[in-house]
Amino acid sequence: KRPAGAPDAALARKVTKVGVVGAGLMASQMALLFARRLEVPVVLTDLDEARLGKGVGHVHAEVDKLLAKGRVSADQANRLKGLVTGSLTKDAFADADFVIEAVFEELSVKRQVFAEVEAVVSPGCVLATNTSSLSLAEMGAALEHPERLVGFHFFNPVAVMPLLEIVKAPSTDDATLATAFAVGRSLKKSSVLVKDAPAFVVNRLLTRFMGEVIAAVDEGTPLETAEHSLDDLGLPMTPFALLQLVGPAVGLHVAETLHAAFPERFGVSANMAKLVASGKPGVYLPDFSLDPEAVALFAGG
Ligand code: 3HC
């Protein structure tokens, strides 16, 4: 069945090679997913050898886990490792049909990335962004071909979460959108089509939920109470574990974007900003017990 709003699948272009800009955790998970489900070469790029090596290393480690669980054979594992390669230059994207960026959430950075990518790819190549909240219209404003820009927003953990937001910018054409839906289907994700609006749809709803949990703590509810009062509601994760998974800096960025767009409806917690400024990865220690220092940042008001 065609997802609501998806154009005719016959318009989709074939994808035979994928480029991923950024080799962070989310980007390397995406690279593995593309290689595994599309069975095409995937090239990761990043700014330096260290980041690139870490990204490719992460892919190999995830492949080894799949092998250990018996999800792939030894041959498939080797093939997957061979399909995902790293490159310091974007020239490796010259014959790619689908390039996705998952770099730092800053409009100027993403614009720069797409200017560099557009200089090397062929005219039919889809330019996809994994942005969680930035405007695609602004991101694509300086592109030569803004009709091939589309939002392709994954959720953490990328390998597991079925949801995929496909964002149509005002300029996105039907062939680009159809290709995005076809790729989403190959990745076995459930794609939803959303408009180019601040934080799209899913993060808008999640930020409302998380914002209320954080506001309750800001207003004096002990963090442990806010964290565990929904335990028996059947949610897959506690609120602060979810914050840890997403990353407090990302959560804060989305909240700031929504606050800028709808100041009366979305606040930005000063305690959240303190947590991010402290550089702490979240409110949990690596052994998943609450970090007293992080908790004190909130409770201190
Ligand atoms: N990477 C790869 N695989 C992972 C993983 C990760 N980070 N975390 C879990 N998995 C895999 C496990 O290996 C396991 O695989 P298996 O079945 O092959 O053994 C499977 O997922 C289930 O894991 P667990 O049994 O350990 O854990 P749970 O059953 O508790 O499920 C969960 C974990 C799927 C993460 C679940 O807790 C969940 O759905 N949580 C909600 C996550 C969520 O809401 N994400 C959206 C965040 S918002 C976002 O990302 C948008 C951005 O723009 C901010």
Task: Write a concise synopsis of the structure shown.
Helices cover 45% and strands 13% of the residues.
Describe this structure in words.
- By secondary structure, the protein is an alpha/beta fold.
- Helix content is 45%, strand content 13%.
- α1 packs across α2 and α11 (270-277) runs antiparallel to α12 (292-299).
- It is globular and about 55 Å long.
- The structure holds 3-hydroxybutanoyl-coenzyme A.
- 3-hydroxybutanoyl-coenzyme A binds next to α7 and α9.
- Residues 17-196 form the 3-hydroxyacyl-CoA dehydrogenase NAD binding domain.
- Residues 200-282 form the 3-hydroxyacyl-CoA dehydrogenase C-terminal domain.
Give a topology summary.
Elements: E1 18-21, H1 25-38, E2 42-45, H2 49-68, H3 74-83, E3 84-87, E4 98-101, H4 107-120, E5 126-129, H5 136-139, E6 149-154, E7 163-168, H6 174-186, E8 190-195, H7 202-218, H8 223-228, H9 239-246, H10 248-261, H11 270-277, H12 292-299
Parallel strand pairs: 1-2, 1-4, 2-3, 4-5, 5-6, 7-8
Antiparallel strand pairs: 6-7
Helix pairs in contact: 1-2, 2-3, 7-10, 9-10, 11-12
3-hydroxybutanoyl-coenzyme A binds next to helix 7 and helix 9.
C-alpha geometry:
globular
Looking at the overall shape, the CATH architecture of the largest domain is 3-Layer(aba) Sandwich
What is the mean pLDDT? 95
Q: The CATH topology of the largest domain, please?
A: Rossmann fold
Outline the biggest β-sheet. Answer: 8 strands, mixed
Ligand inventory reads: 3-hydroxybutanoyl-coenzyme A
Report the β-strand fraction as a percent range: 5-15%
Low-confidence stretches: none
The number of E-state strands comes to 8
Name of the CATH homologous superfamily of the largest domain: NAD(P)-binding Rossmann-like Domain
- Please report the first level of CATH classification, the CATH class of the largest domain: Alpha Beta
Query: Count of helical segments?
Result: 12
* Helix vs. strand class: alpha/beta
Please tell me the total number of domains: 2
Helix content: 40-55%
As laid out across the biggest beta sheet, the strand order is 3-2-1-4-5-6-7-8
| Gyration radius, rounded | 20 Å
Secondary-structure element pattern, one letter each:
EHEHHEEHEHEEHEHHHHHH
The N- and C-terminal alpha carbons lie at a distance of 50 Å
